[in-house]
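A further point concerns the way the authors explain their paired sequence and structure data. Since the whole study asks how a given chain folds, the encoding of that fold should be made plain. A single example would do more here than another paragraph of explanation. An entry of this sort, consisting of the sequence and the corresponding backbone structure tokens, reads as follows:

_____
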Amino acid sequence: MRRVARSFAFVCIFLLAALDARAVSLIGAGDSGSCNLAPPTISNSPGDLCPNGTSGNAQVDNSTSYADFAWSITNGVLTSTPAFPAVSYRATGSDPVIVSVTVTDFGGCTSTNSVTIPIRTLAPPALQAYPAALCPNGSPGSAYVQDTISIAMYNWSIENGIFTRPPNTADPSVSFQATTSNPVRVTVTVTDFG
């Protein structure tokens, strides 16, 4: 009987050692040191933004590979819920917008990536005015924007004069008249379709 007891003890020790080794390998597989989740790929549109302009959109490519999404933004504001695979946003200033997402896969591993969206600026519009000089309360002059293809809206203002017809935000031209002997200053601020 002594021999059976030794054999039984040996078998139990061997099984316990084998179970301990397996338990260690299972515990090791789930710790944070073994997570190696590649950063998610982000697609965004449009490629640039105007300050306080229309919204942009970003989305995680292959979103079905992830269980959770957490979006954040710098130099802008999120305009949709930040817990989905896609998000809408807009710029709030003149600095580039940075949109970031942290994804969590179905195993609990996380990874983060960001995309930087530059701020678009428009060149000053080319403005032409006729005639070159006006007399106070004399004949009217006119001004117009030369290149109007990419312009959606015109905001006209005047100093030392009046518009002879109300300016229209869809009209690239205005008529005006001098009201003093000081130079007339006609200004237009344009907005593009973005």
